[in-house]
Amino acid sequence: MAKAIISLPRAGNWTELLIILKSFVFVTAGVVAMSSMCYFIPAQLLTDEASNVCENIYSSKWYNHMELAKPLIMIVARSHDLVEIKPCGIWELNLKTGLTVVKSMVSYATFLKTVESAT
């Protein structure tokens, strides 16, 4: 039989464990920050542009081109539907979600700093 040996870090190794934990948190925060710049902001811009379609069509001179009237009316009718970008149906990608993630990261980092200064 094979035995699994699990050893707890000794007093000297706790600093190494803390460094590893800090590095993991730092890398995770960096990945989340990069994803917010690469995904949350463009998704919000795309959602804003999709919500402006109705106003832009209404402001155009669509009545001068009667062959386009019926398709444009259909587009205006469809543009009243709310546009949401949900990857894998998990959460909505928008600026509000991104700022909530950043706010949570800052709160967690503040908590870790408080715990570290208390020890």
Automatic annotation (TrEMBL):
<dbReference type="InterPro" id="IPR004117">
    <property type="entry name" value="7tm6_olfct_rcpt"/>
</dbReference>
<keyword id="KW-0472">Membrane</keyword>
<dbReference type="GO" id="GO:0005886">
    <property type="term" value="C:plasma membrane"/>
</dbReference>
<keyword id="KW-1003">Cell membrane</keyword>
<keyword id="KW-0552">Olfaction</keyword>
<dbReference type="GO" id="GO:0007165">
    <property type="term" value="P:signal transduction"/>
</dbReference>
<feature type="transmembrane region" description="Helical">
    <location>
        <begin position="17"/>
        <end position="41"/>
    </location>
</feature>
<keyword id="KW-0716">Sensory transduction</keyword>
<protein>
    <recommendedName>
        <fullName>Odorant receptor</fullName>
    </recommendedName>
</protein>
<dbReference type="Pfam" id="PF02949">
    <property type="entry name" value="7tm_6"/>
</dbReference>
<keyword id="KW-0807">Transducer</keyword>
<keyword id="KW-0675">Receptor</keyword>
<dbReference type="GO" id="GO:0005549">
    <property type="term" value="F:odorant binding"/>
</dbReference>
<dbReference type="GO" id="GO:0004984">
    <property type="term" value="F:olfactory receptor activity"/>
</dbReference>
<keyword id="KW-1133">Transmembrane helix</keyword>
<keyword id="KW-0812">Transmembrane</keyword>
